[in-house]
């Protein structure tokens, strides 16, 4: 469907940008899935398979946390401009709103001393005491803190662990039966991530250290999913919230997400999502990445999607160079797509 993009991805793999990948192109009713390379290269080599589970890292934010927040707003339980404190009084600051957290405009000062030595309860207490900086509402600064705090809010509203909220409100209604939190062995269909300092290779355990500690309370990462399930999620958006004749999200909700929702209206971020724009006609595109080497790009208007799942942190994390390669892949796809749309 996109031969130039596919060829570029293959070239990146040959240059060891990532050991392997599963990618999907969606155009209207047509879907093409490609599988390449290896799922694992250490301690043994295992070829990539289409149904393998990836630690999708921050895709958790849009698939789960953002989706539940959108459903709560539809139900009239929350509004974007109410303070987090009004809903979660344990959060000490009274000025940060849900909009700030969902658009990464809270300027929340996230430094926590000895963070990686804290247990889940200590980490929770630390997050609840964080304060905004001088750029509150003015500048987009991407942070995990927003969705971690929203995870605590969801636990308060639903009176259950946030991963159980995600299962109930997202995974089950969307029939994402291959998607899981806190995986249990065997891990034979799980794509591993990084090699830790002690030589252990993370496989089946969450890569993000904060989510690993928060475990069932993490709203920022921790989802393991595969292409089949993420395609179901993407197609829900492309179908304007409809899933098998069920209105899962309202059309007006999806339309709202296609607009800049930052306080200034100029931050190029929506509720949960990063906003990109088609080079052809400036159509809004919903975009999000995951640290482990994943991303999702949705064109709701033209009913297309590009989902990319790689294990780029296996076995070493070279983030700065990977981001350059990732952006080249995106640029190639958007350029190739523009030529398709012109025809």
Automatic annotation (TrEMBL):
Which intervals hold domain Beta-lactamase-related? 7-319
Q: Name one Pfam family in it.
A: Beta-lactamase
Task: Tell me which InterPro entries the record gives.
Answer: Beta-lactam-related, Beta-lactam/transpept-like, Diverse_Enzym_Activities
Extract one GO molecular function annotation from the record. Answer: hydrolase activity
Task: Give the keywords, sorted.
Answer: Hydrolase
In terms of superkingdom, the source organism counts as Bacteria
- List the Gene3D superfamilies hit by this protein, alphabetically: DD-peptidase/beta-lactamase superfamily (3.40.710.10)
Q: What is this protein called?
A: Serine hydrolase
Which species?
A: Enterococcus avium
């Amino acid at each position: 469907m996109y031969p130039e993009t596919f060829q570029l991805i293959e070239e990146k793999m040959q240059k060891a940008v990532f050991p392997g990948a599963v990618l999907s192109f969606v155009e209207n009713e047509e879907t093409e899935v490609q599988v390449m390379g290896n799922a694992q290269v250490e301690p043994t080599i295992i070829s990539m398979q289409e149904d393998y589970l990836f630690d999708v890292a921050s895709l958790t934010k849009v698939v789960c946390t953002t989706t539940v927040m959108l459903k709560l707003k539809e139900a009239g339980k929350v509004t974007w401009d109410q303070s987090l404190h009004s809903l979660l009084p344990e959060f000490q600051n009274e000025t940060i709103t849900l909009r700030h957290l969902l658009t990464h405009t809270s300027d929340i000062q996230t430094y926590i001393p000895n963070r990686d030595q804290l247990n889940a309860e200590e980490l929770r207490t630390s997050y609840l005491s964080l304060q905004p900086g001088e750029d509150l509402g003015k500048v987009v600064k991407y942070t995990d803190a927003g969705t971690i705090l929203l995870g605590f809010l969801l636990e308060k509203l639903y009176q259950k662990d946030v991963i159980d909220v995600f299962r109930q409100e997202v995974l089950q209604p969307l029939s994402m039966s291959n998607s899981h939190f806190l995986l249990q062995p065997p891990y034979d269909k799980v794509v591993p991530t990084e090699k830790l300092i002690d030589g252990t290779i993370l496989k089946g355990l969450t890569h993000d250290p904060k989510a690993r500690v928060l475990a069932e309370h993490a709203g920022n990462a921790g989802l393991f999913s595969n292409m089949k399930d993420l395609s179901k999620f993407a197609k829900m958006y492309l179908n304007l919230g409809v899933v098998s004749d069920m209105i899962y999200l309202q059309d007006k909700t999806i339309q709202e997400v296609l607009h800049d929702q930052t306080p200034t209206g100029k931050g190029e971020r929506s509720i949960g999502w990063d906003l990109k724009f088609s080079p052809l006609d400036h159509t809004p595109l919903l975009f999000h990445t995951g640290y482990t080497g994943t991303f999702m790009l949705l064109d709701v208007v033209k009913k297309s999607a590009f989902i990319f799942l790689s294990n780029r942190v296996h076995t070493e994390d070279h983030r700065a160079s990977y981001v350059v390669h990732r952006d080249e892949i995106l640029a190639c796809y958007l350029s190739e797509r523009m030529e398709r749309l012109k025809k």
